[in-house]
């Protein structure tokens, strides 16, 4: 790290950036405070949204200048990262960045840039968005830092194996792979040992690139923060069990950003404490995320990032609250598998158990449990063209949800980041017909 | 004539309007090709219906793809709810309704009380819809209305392997170039379409009796091939193309 680089970083991020973002947060909070409702049928906006905006903006601003002062790792959303945090890495999540592109309506152009380079339209739209970003150098967040290390864990899908090989080839940097055996049933000891050995190797690789050793106390500290944030996130989602629900899954899709890309940071814990306090207060006062809540639904799969707001409004106009989602739940449900005092073993256990690394029966059981806990009347199953591991089995799940649990479920064909794979008229028609079946 | 409610179904191909008596019987009906200016056309049709009703302002319920553009509609419902309602009123039986329209096909499970229990639709693809027949009829220089009879007249059949309308069209060109008789090709096209719809029916599980509504129900070959594939009779509901508008009009009586 050069002195000039450090000075530039601190001037841009710690001083000017910090002040500008704080001012923007203050303005946002004032604006939100004056808004009685977040939309024609929605309840009051969440006051902590201003803080969230500041956190995310600061994360990408720090990323923009990160190469000057820190090592940078690009990681998959389900990868164990606590050792990287403890070694001082800046972490970039291409999937989260993809979601930002999706929300800002950049998904199509990024995918197109990847397709222009020869990547098939059948590839995951997150991968195409990432390739498009890398190849075009353009992003709505300004600039992404160049990776020094790539960490890929296949506990979410197998596409990441090839995606990260492309990145490794492009950037000419080391790629670390952590292979997690698929769990058809309980995790066996040899599986845990297999993952643990790979995490040990990943730590060594990260130490080599960083040029320093991992301090056990630091790792334990990060793990404690990670663990606390995950616990808070779970409690935040569980406030959705109240009637009326003080938060919608649509809000959670946005507010989940820190638990994915800023897990292990003190600021994430502080932010989630504030969000939880706000939601508990709403629940106590009976303030709902909708002005009128008639029915409650569960969401399965990734969000349709470029249609979040219209979908939220369409459901809200009929008094339908999306009270939970298996997707956001995935970042909270593993809290009990983590023991901060045994960080590396905890990482092996927790990162072996994401919902996408387990059988479809487990997902059905998760949905059945969540339907009961969240008092939901039905399920919206997003059949996501870009996420086969999440979408597989949904037709059977739909049948069993209706048949065995008496909970109607709708299959909604879309794609999480590529709007060209989404037909608005057909989706709206299906959704309205489903709501008519529900009687709203 | 006393019209107690009006139902208008603005479909992708045709717009249908039905007026019902207080008892829910069809007393007035109209079917015209859907014009590009949906709002103006709907307004003119509704004016015509109101005039036929001898003035007054019966409630209007709109359905179909253009339902949100119908001026003065008191309620807006999907074709799924409306077709199910119209068909149940006609048949009085629970079962599986196959509604094949110009732009999509739907399979609707009607419960014992006439309520929609479940439904599935074709995905974002024109195969398995009326558009499939329209496009291929154009390539074969046949009238859409003659396609069913042509298919049933053909003794032989050539398989159409493509499930995509666009690719099916290219496949037809190749088949004709190889000397396949038009009747055999038409029969193969109907087989491809009904196979697609049969998959949708099967995805809901076998729940006879089977009913057929929507514009494509006029095509006798579709009903025959569907019955063959499902191994059970498929009943074409009387005035199948009007069932959406009829169900909408019946919903208008609820108020």
Relevant terms:
heterodimer; A: 440 residues; alpha/beta; four-stranded parallel sheet; 19 helices; 8 strands; 55% helix; B: 255 residues; Nucleotidyltransferase, domain 5; five-stranded mixed sheet; 10 strands; 20% strand
Tell me what you see in this structure.
- The complex is a heterodimer of chains A (440) and B (255).
- Chain A has one domain.
- Chain A has helices at residues 3-34, 49-65, 82-86, 94-103, 107-116, 125-136, 159-171, 189-210, 216-238, 249-255, 257-261, 266-285, 308-316, 326-329, 343-350, 360-373, 388-391, 394-405, 424-438; strands spanning 72-75, 90-92, 149-153, 175-178, 295-300, 320-325, 378-384, 409-414.
- A four-stranded parallel sheet of chain A has the order 2-1-3-4, sandwiched between helices.
- Chain A has 19 helices and eight strands.
- In chain A, helix 3 links the parallel strand 1 (72-75) and strand 2.
- Chain A starts with a helix and ends with a helix.
- Chain A is globular, with a radius of gyration of 21 Å.
- The model of chain A has no long low-confidence stretch (mean pLDDT 96).
- In chain B, strand 9, helix 7 and strand 10 form a beta-alpha-beta unit.
- The longest helix of chain B has 22 residues, at 182-203.
- Chain B has 255 residues and is of the alpha/beta class.
- The model of chain B has no long low-confidence stretch (mean pLDDT 91).
- Chain B has a domain at 5-81 and 243-252: 2-Layer Sandwich (Nucleotidyltransferase, domain 5), CATH 3.30.420.
- In chain B, helix 3 (130-140) packs parallel to helix 5 (165-177).
- The interface between A and B is medium-sized, with 16 and 18 residues.
């Amino acid at each position: 790290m050069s002195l000039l680089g450090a000075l530039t970083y601190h001037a841009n991020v710690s001083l000017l950036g910090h002040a500008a973002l704080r001012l923007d947060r203050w303005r946002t909070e004032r604006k939100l405070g004056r808004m009685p409702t977040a939309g024609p049928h929605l309840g009051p906006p969440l006051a902590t949204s201003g803080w969230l905006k500041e956190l995310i903006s600061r994360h990408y601003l720090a990323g923009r200048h990160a190469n000057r002062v820190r090592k940078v790792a690009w990681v998959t959303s389900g990868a164990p990262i606590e050792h990287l945090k403890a070694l001082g890495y800046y972490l970039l999540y291409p999937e989260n960045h993809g979601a930002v592109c999706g929300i800002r309506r950049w998904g199509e152009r990024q995918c197109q840039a990847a397709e222009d380079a020869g990547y098939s339209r059948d590839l995951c739209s997150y991968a195409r968005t990432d390739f498009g970003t890398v190849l075009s150098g353009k992003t709505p967040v300004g600039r992404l830092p160049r990776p020094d290390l790539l960490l890929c864990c296949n506990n979410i899908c197998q596409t990441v194996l090839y995606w990260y090989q492309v990145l490794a080839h492009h950037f000419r940097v080391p790629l670390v792979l952590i292979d997690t055996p698929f769990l058809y049933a309980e995790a066996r000891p040899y599986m845990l040992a297999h993952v643990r050995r790979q995490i040990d190797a990943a730590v060594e690789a990260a130490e080599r690139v960083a040029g320093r050793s991992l301090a056990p106390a630091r790792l334990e500290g990060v793990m404690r923060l990670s663990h606390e944030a995950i616990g808070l996130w779970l409690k935040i989602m569980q406030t959705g069990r109240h009637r009326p629900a003080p938060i919608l899954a649509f809000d959670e899709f946005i507010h989940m950003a820190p638990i994915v890309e800023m897990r292990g940071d003190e600021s994430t814990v502080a932010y989630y404490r504030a969000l939880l306090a706000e939601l508990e207060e709403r629940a106590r006062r009976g303030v709902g995320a909708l002005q009128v809540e008639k029915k409650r639904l569960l969401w399965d799969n990734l969000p349709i990032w470029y249609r979040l707001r219209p979908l939220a409004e369409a459901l809200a106009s009929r008094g339908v609250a999306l009270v939970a989602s298996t997707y956001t739940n995935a970042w909270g449900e593993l809290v009990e598998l983590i023991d901060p005092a045994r960080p590396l073993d905890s990482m092996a256990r927790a990162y072996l158990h994401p919902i996408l690394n387990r059988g479809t029966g487990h997902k059905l059981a998760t949905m059945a449990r969540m339907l009961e806990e969240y008092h939901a009347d039905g399920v919206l199953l997003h059949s996501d063209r870009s996420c086969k591991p999440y979408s597989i089995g949904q037709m059977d799940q739909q049948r069993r949800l209706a048949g065995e649990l008496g909970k109607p479920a709708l299959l909604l064909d879309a794609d999480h980041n590529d709007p060209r794979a989404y037909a608005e008229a057909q989706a709206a028609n299906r959704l309205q017909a489903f709501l008519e079946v529900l009687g709203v | 004539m006393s019209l107690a409610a009006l139902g208008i179904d603005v479909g992708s191909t045709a717009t249908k309007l039905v007026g019902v008596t207080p008892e829910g019987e069809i007393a007035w009906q109209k079917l015209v090709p859907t014009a590009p200016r949906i709002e103006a056309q709907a307004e003119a049709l509704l004016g015509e219906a109101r005039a036929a009703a001898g003035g007054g302002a019966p409630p209007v319920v709109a359905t179909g793809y253009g339902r949100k553009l119908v001026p003065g509609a008191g309620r807006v419902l999907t074709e799924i709810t409306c077709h199910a309602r119209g068909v149940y009123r006609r048949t009085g039986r629970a079962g599986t309704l196959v509604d094949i329209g110009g732009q999509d096909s739907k399979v609707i499970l009607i419960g014992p009380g006439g309520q929609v229990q479940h439904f599935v639709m074709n995905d974002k693809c024109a195969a398995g819809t009326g558009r499939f027949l329209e496009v291929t009829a154009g390539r074969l220089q046949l009238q859409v209305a003659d396609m069913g009879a042509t298919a049933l007249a053909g003794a032989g059949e050539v398989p159409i392997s493509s499930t995509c309308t666009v690719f099916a069209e290219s496949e037809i060109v190749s088949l004709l170039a190889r000397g396949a008789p038009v009747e055999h090709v038409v029969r193969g096209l109907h087989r491809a379409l009904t196979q697609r719809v049969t998959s949708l029916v099967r995805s809901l599980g076998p729940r006879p009796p089977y009913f057929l509504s929507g514009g494509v129900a006029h095509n006798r070959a579709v009903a025959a091939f569907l019955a063959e594939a499902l191994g059970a009779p498929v009943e074409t509901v009387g005035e199948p193309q009007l069932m959406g508008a009829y169900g909408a009009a019946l919903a208008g009586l609820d108020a």
